[in-house]
Amino acid sequence: MCNQKATTTARQVLCPPTLVSAFSNLSLAQLSNPKYVVFPGFCDVHVHFREPGFSYKETIRSGSLAAAHGGYTAVCTMPNLNPVPDGLATLRPQLDAIEKDACIAVYPYGSITKGEQGQVLSDMDELSPFVVGFSDDGRGVQSDAMMAAAMERAKALQKPIVAHCEVNDLLCGGYIHAGDYAATHHHRGIVSESEYAQIARDLELVAKIGCKYHVCHISAKESVDLIRQAKKDGLDVTCETGPHYLVLDDSDLLEDGRFKMNPPLRGSSDREALLQGVIDGTVDMIATDHAPHSAEEKSRGLEKSAFGIVGLETAFPVLYTKLVKTGILSLEALIDRMAIAPRKRFDLPLGCDFTVWDLDAEFTVNPNEFLSLGRATPFAGERLSGQCVLTVYNGNIVYKNL
Q: Cα–Cα distance between 188 and 339 in angstroms, integer?
């Protein structure tokens, strides 16, 4: 379990001594066992820690503990909070909670618009020194003029626009993908165009303005194609997808809220396109979109449950088991997408952060063992390979299971 005392002890330790100290309680036989693998600390540029405003779902403390359990030493927190961090005064409660309770590096986003309402730009200038970028995640910016203005300001501040792309007029009350499952089970579907149409709009603006632009949680094959072409055209564009979009599609849906997220699981051709995008580098990084809710909020079935699943504590085992062990993706490429590429794009330091894994260890996913307050995962009950045994952030042990 997480070593709480270690997370708050002010001690500077170089990487090799830290690693030796961390393993000092193992026998010589254990130390000679080559099963332990050391990776750079993972970095997730898309998480929801819910504090301030919704601490019954997650807190900075519980979210950062969950991240450490999953091998992460850095995360970027989305701004759909209460208050929305649209100025320094409304960002301050989150900064205070991070300083007090985070056991890893937590970098907040500022919102693009006031209250994420899409009407008035946030106080981007005063937010800029304290945030990693600007996002209205959870809502797409509907106005072309508003997004253009945001891009102009972000360019001047040398910060990325991190876009949740969703055309509201195309949602039509949908809550899962408009595919075979929705048709067969009489659910209202969300068309892929609701995502890729806004990406196309934004890419046109990026071509004119020239800002740094990052697309959140892409789920559709058309989105991959658009971003691939934008990169060929020389635009400063990156994107992410989630573990669930790479290993699941709408044929895996069950009538259970733990399969409901936004964007939704789409068709098998979309999943295959996303996989190819990760393999060829079109999809730069993998981010969990860790979005915890209460058990009651996720117990209402596909139609009425809240959007969002948790993912920090299962991301690497899921991807290692289903992509690396099956030969679809190299281990080196997976570590790049989870640790190196996110930091490179968002200019985040790695320092002496690392995580140690037993790749041979197998376990059954039990949400009751999560350190996150959220429990909703489509991978509950699955048998996976790879267990985190140690996570070190800034020279301190923040998770240990040796």
A: 37
